[in-house]
Amino acid sequence: MDVIADIAVQGVQMLLVFLLAPLLTGFIRKVKARLQRRRGPSLLQPYRDLIRLLRKEVVLADNASWLFRAVPYVTFAAIWVAAALVPTFATGLLFNWTADLIVIVALLGTARFFLALAGMDIGTSFGGIGSSREVMIAALAEPAMLMIVFCVALVAGSTHLSTVANYIASTAVGLRVSLGLAMIALVIVALAENARIPVDNPSTHLELTMVHEAMILEYSGRHLALIEYGAQLKLLLYVSLIVCLFYPWGIGVFGAGPVAYLAGAALYLFKITIAGFLLAMFETATAKMRVFRVPQFLGAALMLGLLGTLLLFVSKGL
Amino acid sequence: MPSLIDLNLEGLQVARHRPWPRTVVDSAVWSFAARMLSERQWQLLSLWGEPASVHMALFDPRSGEVGIVSLDCPHGSFPSVAAKHLPALRLERTITDLFGLKPDGAIDDRPWLDHGQWGVHTPLGAKTDASSPSPAYRFLPVEGDGTHQVAVGPVHAGIIEPGHFRFTVSGETVVRLEQRLGYVHKGIDGLIAGADLARAAQLAGRVSGDSTVAYALAFARAVETAAEIAVPARAVWLRALCAELERLANHLGDIGAICNDAAFAIMLAQFGVLRESVLRAADAAFGHRLMRDVVTPGGVARDLDDAGTAAIRKALAVVRSKLPELIELYDSTASLQDRTVATGTLKPALAEQYAAGGFVGRASGRGFDARRTLAYAPYDELRFDIPVLTEGDVDARIWIRIREVEQSLSLVDQILDRLPRGDIFIAPTLPAEVCEGLALVEGFRGDILVWLRLQGGVVERCHLRDPSWFQWPLLEAVIEGNIIADFPLCNKSFNCSYSGVDL
């Protein structure tokens, strides 16, 4: 029975993130538009865009290799699996016992590695610019991310997200300075990893300023749909991760039954709505930074993660 | 040091050229003028051709005089000006492309406007057949370790005009930028030659869509000076009203658009609202949002009624109430200031050499403004300041725009308060004999120059020079040493016209 329940919960979780990801993007766009006194597109527009792209034919450059065609599937699969590992409405997911936070970082790293390769595959200058910038950002974001993982793992005693969420949600953890530092660091990493302002501008049409968009400039049709979908999943993944690590209260503890799961799902939706709103507010109030300021920005995340980890060695109470 | 007036004694002064003299000189005096340009004594206002002659409009900044020297080219060549004075380069290449006149001692023999797509070469000159494909355009070579090229355009990811930018970068730093323009060549020079007045005025108003009032005004003033037509006072004031509304709308749009290129979209949205309110007021007052074809030779096509006045005053009140907050937002957003301050710095010496007009020149210490320097009516009776800064960066160009918006608001108020009554149009009667006129009008980008020759009731030849002729090359200089990701910001802060230079 347990196995079947495990599979069911895991399946619902995978489906939930799959269906919810475009909605979060649509919601953020809507809030940003309202903050700029625009009406903005419908909340469902990202779904329509994806369907439209799936129906369109794929235009490939003559010198595109097999890699270029395979990458959209690889990245999408990797990100979707990673997203399936982050507890949303309930802990104790089946996959959780085989994969932990470090695997999530590795999966996202794999996706990015292949996308960067695909950016350079065609040989256009924009793809190269995009890939080099993306890798520069990644090289700075990943150490910060690992520091955050260490910090959280030291507090919770595990890198398994279900364990961490259960621990923080159920015991009297109290106010921990190191967790606060880790959270700020994770928000910074999330902004950089998801190509949001101030690191990148997801809605720009200026080729020369793009990072993520420049890499995928040559993609079209279903390939582009998969990459866009992957990006939306990744955004949901990071928001879920922040929620799961630092605000897990109300999450359905494994085996608590359907009512607790439903309550957990409602609370989860509420939490990511708040997170999406805050992101939109932040993006409206900030300009994009110069490319060479990004190392300082991400360096701050690394230092915060490091500080959080070190504090735990100084005092168990911090 | 000789002044421009002395030059008139060196040649044959052309009759009925108004308001400043035009002198036909020999090649020695022509070369002397080019040398005076290179020694920064005079400034180049324009350089243009005819099938068998070339003309050069000069400005003497010390005495504030304007003069034109002309050189007949019976052998199809003239001494190169660009060899001595670089700002003339693109104008000179255009003369070669359109008329086939060759500059002697030219430093650059590549075509400029002619992309080999017309089917003919030198369409306004000898019209030679061009069925064989022209050789590929040679970009200037760049050498160095680790540099690579980034080609941008002419088709861009956004909906903007076409232009090709060839960057040579070392990592993210731009080593050199070379522009290639001319993709929207419309052949206005050819269309306007031989056109009647109404048609020519229409064409002039369509050179650059966002400056349609300024172009129409410059054209009308050139016609009126040439034919000595006295325009009714009310029309003169209404024209200034249109020109200031156009300046307001464009500056407001620009400020928002520059901030948007730093991904600060809220400024674009807010300034978009302000721009829209000005455009709607223009629509209510003059029947067209951009006021196209309102200014015509002889006056204006549409009078301003009380409802129009009220609409303009209401729009101004909206702009006045919102502007201070938005300026405060710009000034206090550190992340935005970090992008604009010290980005894309134009050195004052370069602005002076290129005689850069508008916000590009005034943000780099060049205080030239045709409304003040060559004070034409009704600006000689109006109170306004010419803001000048010396920093020359993106931030300075935004501040010049903000200050000019404030000045334009005050100007519109003054014009509405003092608008004289009376006729708005006098049917222009052109004299039988040949006459020529020159006019300089301050558009929102800078001084627009129109020179024309009227003959037998039609416009025999008309030359329209956009301020962007001298601003585009400066953009190439400004971006050097900046990072390539900052180019859109620099570019938007210049906001040069593609259409205006491609003609």
TrEMBL record, chain A:
PANTHER family: FORMATE HYDROGENLYASE SUBUNIT 4, FORMATE HYDROGENLYASE SUBUNIT 4-RELATED. GO terms for cellular component: plasma membrane. It comes from the Bacteria. This is NADH-quinone oxidoreductase subunit H. Signal peptide: none annotated. The chain crosses the membrane at residues 12-29, 73-95, 101-123, 135-155, 167-192, 235-254, 260-282, 294-314. InterPro entries: ComplexI_Subunit1, NADH_UbQ_OxRdtase_su1/FPO. It is a multi-pass membrane protein. The lineage of its organism: Bacteria, Pseudomonadati, Pseudomonadota, Alphaproteobacteria, Hyphomicrobiales. Keywords: Membrane, Transmembrane, Transmembrane helix. It is found in: Membrane. It comes from Rhodopseudomonas palustris. Its main location: membrane.
Automatic annotation (TrEMBL), chain B:
This is Hydrogenase expression protein HypE. GO terms for molecular function: NAD binding; oxidoreductase activity, acting on NAD(P)H; quinone binding. Keywords: Oxidoreductase. Residues 268-426 form the NADH-quinone oxidoreductase subunit D domain. The lineage of its organism: Bacteria, Pseudomonadati, Pseudomonadota, Alphaproteobacteria, Hyphomicrobiales. It comes from the Bacteria. Gene3D superfamilies: Cytochrome-c3 Hydrogenase, chain B. Pfam families: Complex1_49kDa (PF00346). Signal peptide: none annotated.
